[in-house]
Amino acid sequence: MWQYIQSVLIFLKESRRKETNTVFKVRAKIQSFLGDENKYPCHFGYKIGEEIIYDGEKFIGRICPDILTALAPKVFAMFAAGPRYIEPAYYYPFWYAPPSIRDESKKISDGLGFKNVLQTHKESQYHMANLITPKAFNWPPYKKRTVFRSNAFICPDTRTATLVKLEAFDLSDKGSATPWFRRQMVILGKVLQKPGIVLNKIINEFSEKETYEIYPALSPILLQTLVEELELMGYVEIQNKSVRPTGKGKTKFQEFKAGLTGEERKALKI
């Protein structure tokens, strides 16, 4: 028991030492009411289209306490992984199977005893089955693998069933993410100067002082990670290991540069 407690304490200690990597701004949006909002109105007063944003250091927007426990872990996951984050349920293949009924005679083939119902069930408007994505359990099945691809959750008051969808919509430039974001913007500036530059050659565009004296110190693997996140946000495109800026990337860099002081631009050499 004592060894277990020691391991937990070591884990917590090491976790506090870790530096925050580049992270993403996360938006949670009130998408719809799957329940009967007229009969069971949202007592927090949410309206469709209302947003909650986490920018890396603070939440912006109103947060109902009933959704807080569902919101926090998803924001944390997307804050770190951005659009790469996918719910584990996405990987289940059964979303693309038809409905079924029990049939003991089928046990000899499937091992459990189910019979396919080769049609899509249509339930009443406020049936609990409507809380599942409408592209699941259809026959014929939906042709693209999209079930659980987007990140969302439903308010625990299933009478109203407020659907909240989340997305990582930009790189975080706040709080402890600031140094990492600045590194990315300077990298983006290098790509703008040399469109089509080979990914592993970008580091050669930095002087030794720029590489090692500015936090975080650059290395090939770190630079690769930062460029990958620029690509995820649509600021660069990578083809055959060549990196090219996009129009969106050019605008982002100009906005970043305009927000710096003269001393900061000089220090970053942009």
Question: How do the strands and helices of this protein lay out in sequence?
Answer:
Blueprint (H helix, E strand, L loop, with lengths): L1 H16 L6 E10 L17 E4 L4 E2 L4 H17 L18 E3 L4 H4 L3 E3 L34 E4 L7 E10 L6 H16 L3 E2 L9 H5 L7 H13 L3 E4 L2 E4 L1 H12 L3 H7 L2
Helix pairs in contact: 4-6, 4-7
Keywords:
five-stranded antiparallel sheet, elongated, three-stranded antiparallel sheet, alpha+beta, 270 residues, Arc Repressor Mutant, subunit A, 3 domains
- Order of helices and strands, N to C? HEEEHEHEEEHEHHEEHH
The helicity comes to 25-40%
CATH architecture of the largest domain: Orthogonal Bundle
Content-based structural category: alpha+beta
Low-confidence runs = 1-20
**Beta fraction:** 15-25%
Number of domains: 3
**Number of helical stretches of at least 4 residues:** 8
Structure description:
The chain has three domains: about 20-85 and about 150-170, no CATH class; about 95-145, no CATH class; about 175-270, Orthogonal Bundle (Arc Repressor Mutant, subunit A). The chain has a five-stranded antiparallel beta sheet with strand order 3-2-1-7-6, with helices on one face. A three-stranded antiparallel beta sheet has the order 8-10-9. The protein has helices spanning about 1-15, 65-80, 105-110, 180-195, 210, 220-230, 245-260, 260-270, and strands spanning about 25-35, 50-55, 60, 100, 115, 150-155, 160-170, 195-200, 235-240, 240-245. The protein is elongated and about 75 Å long. About 35% of the residues lie in helices and about 15% in strands.
